[in-house]
Amino acid sequence: MPYVAIIFVEDSLSSMEVWKKRGNDIRRNLDAMMSAIAKRRDTWANRQEAYDYFSSRAPWKTWDKRVLDLYVRHGLKDTLPSESDKSTVTLACDKSQEKATYADHDNEPYRGAARYLESLDPDFDIHCVYGEKEDFIRQASHDSILASRRMASVYRVPNAAHFVIQQNPQGVALCLGQILRDIVEGPLRPRL
Description:
InterPro entries: AB_hydrolase_fold. By secondary structure, the protein is of the alpha/beta class. It has two domains: 5-19 and 107-185, Rossmann fold (3-Layer(aba) Sandwich); 43-93, no CATH class. Helix content is 47%, strand content 13%. The strands form two sheets. It has a three-stranded parallel β-sheet, covered by helices on one side. The chain has a three-stranded antiparallel β-sheet with strand order 2-4-3. α2 (47-55) packs across α3 (65-74). The relative contact order is 0.19.
C-alpha cells in the first residue's frame, strides 16, 4: 500500500542548523533527563500508590486523567517473586530502557530524519501536530522542521506541550480527524 501522507505528532526532529546553534543545550537537557530518570522511583506497593505518586509530579501531573489511568493500568506490571520480596508494582518498561531513548547525544537519528524529510517530493503531504506550549523540545527545533519544506497543514493543540498526546488527547484526536478528512477528501477542500 503506497503512503499518501505523513503525520508528525510533536516530533523531536531538529535541523542541523539548530543542532549547531543549540547542540550544547540539547545535550545538557538530555543529560538532565537521564539523571532524573535514574533517580526516579520505580516501585510502589500497589497501583493506587503509584497513581498518587504520578499525579503529584511532573510530567504526569499535567496529563489528562484518562491517560494517567491507562498508564497506571498498562504501564506498570506486578513484580515477580524473584524481583521483590513482597508484592509490588513496577514500571513495565524499566528505567534503563527509558534512559536509552535519551542516550544518543549526537541526536543523529533526529537530524537524519530531518534531512530525509527535506529530500521527499515537495508534493508529498506532510502534516504536523504540535502542542502550543514550549517545554523540552524548543520552538526553534519545530520551526526548523516547518521551514524545511511546505507542510500540508500545521496544528497547534491548546493546553499541551511535548506530551501533547498525554496532555490533550481530545485535541490531538480532533486534529488527526481533520487531517484524515483532508486526505480523503483531497486538496479541493479548504484547510483550517
